[in-house]
Amino acid sequence: MKTLDKMVCLVDGEHYLPVTKAAIDTLNSLEHIDIVAIVFIGGTEKLRTDDPDSYSKMMGLPVHFGKDENEIPYSLIEEMIKQYDADIVMDLSDEPVLDYTKRFKIASKVLSLGIPYKGPDFQFDPLTLYEVVRKPSLKILGTGKRIGKTAVSSFASRIIDKNGYEPCVVAMGRGGPAEPEIVHGNQIEITPEFLMEQSDKGVHAASDHWEDALMSRVLTIGCRRCGGGMGGDVFMTNMKKGAELANENDCKFVIFEGSGAAIPPIKTNKHIVLIGANQPLINIENFFGPFRIQLGDLVIITMCEEPMASPEKVKEIEKIIAKVNSTASIISTIFRPKPLGDISGKNVLFATTAPDGIKEVLVNHLQDNYNCNVVGITSHLSNRPLLQEDINKYIDKADVMLTELKAAAVDVATKDSLDAGLEVVYCDNIPIAIDDTYPDISESIINLVDAAIDDFNNFY
Q: Which regions form coiled coils (predicted)?
């Protein structure tokens, strides 16, 4: 027998009471709807009384008022959802009480409780979360693309593996395989020639799971996804199958890696949230930035240096995070390249997705720390035509192509370099805290893994 959807309605005093009551009665007449409570969220223009009991009597339903008529009662909305075990929130308010920013804030609160938020011409649904993984797990998600998720995932995987937790990574990407693909990064040697063979077979050999396998040397499972909703849900993915494969393998801890701003649709014990300091503040503070921030047990801010972000902007992002999620640990970081092979004494052409403004810093880091001579650098690894131009410009001067395993790293950078007789060395990116006032990254990750294991054991 189908049960009724318990609904909490949001109303305001900018509507005449008889009009609001007519709308409530219309909803309540629907066979599948049971309105359990009304939350008054502000506006007094057409409100004759602010007495909750009088309002409840007139409406024929429990009506709850916030303490301050000039403030949207976000906490009260959350409280009523929990108190009445609501299945959906229906918004019958309007401008001027609610604007776009306030509605997104309400949406973030409602979706974080796992129910839909609906209005006359919109509906935001909670994340799809398959309860399928049978091992302790965490997910790594981000607020956008090109903010270093795979780099942090690879780093985290190495740290977790080094400490004996036997992890595997399940990654989803726009270019992932039709069926989840296992790459035994802990067993096979992933050379440039090997990746070229995969590319020649039609495999996207620079997909995130190949990068994870190469950088972390752990078992990885590659999945695909298409589409990304405003809250992070995807239209299509085979990650559930990937999670089931992780259940069947010998790994003891599973890391699920997001794609762009899309969130892995798998229920996990803990979450790492990445925020790019290069992103507009409005996208972090508003829309569904707060929703993603709320999910984080550990929040890592990446690219915290000029020209991507000023120190003042980094501090502002930290304040936003602390306001939205007071319990999360926050670490502000930069990335620095780490070659996976020996490049000392060699002339290097470096291919990266880092922006032009950081080129000099990266060149100096490579030359100072790896005793090489960088003869050229291209930041166009994700733009094939411009990448090709840069390679043609510098390739005759180089002994080594040093490249991140991103985008066109295999089918352009690796292919052209091998054809020209150059050695190809792949490059990792290491997250480093901007100063020693922040928690240690490695220690923070291991603490989170231990917490995930405790959470898993308590549940099972």
A: none
Of 281, 371, 273, 365, the C-alpha closest to 328 is 273
Average pLDDT over residues 108-113: 95
User: What's the token pair of residue 385?
Assistant: 């035509």
User: Domain-by-domain residue ranges, the chain?
Assistant: 5-124, 137-336+434-459, 337-429
> Looking up tokens 């309105």, which residue turns up?
35
**How far apart (Å, rounded) are the C-alpha atoms in residues 141 and 272?**
6
The domain at 337-429 falls in which architecture?
3-Layer(aba) Sandwich (3.40)
**Looking at residue 2, what is its pLDDT?**
56
State percent of the chain over pLDDT 90.
Answer: 75
User: Residue 296: left (phi > 0), alpha (psi -120 to 50), or beta?
Assistant: beta
* Residue 305 · residue 361 · CB < 8 Å: yes
**CATH code that applies to domain 137-336+434-459:** 3.40.50.300
Cβ count near 201 (within 10 Å): 8
pLDDT for position 410:
85
DSSP 8-state secondary structure symbol assigned to residue 102: H
Please say if the pLDDT value at position 81 is more than 70.
yes
Q: Domain 5-124 is of which CATH architecture? A: 3-Layer(aba) Sandwich (3.40)
**Average predicted confidence (pLDDT) for the chain:** 92
pTM: 0.92
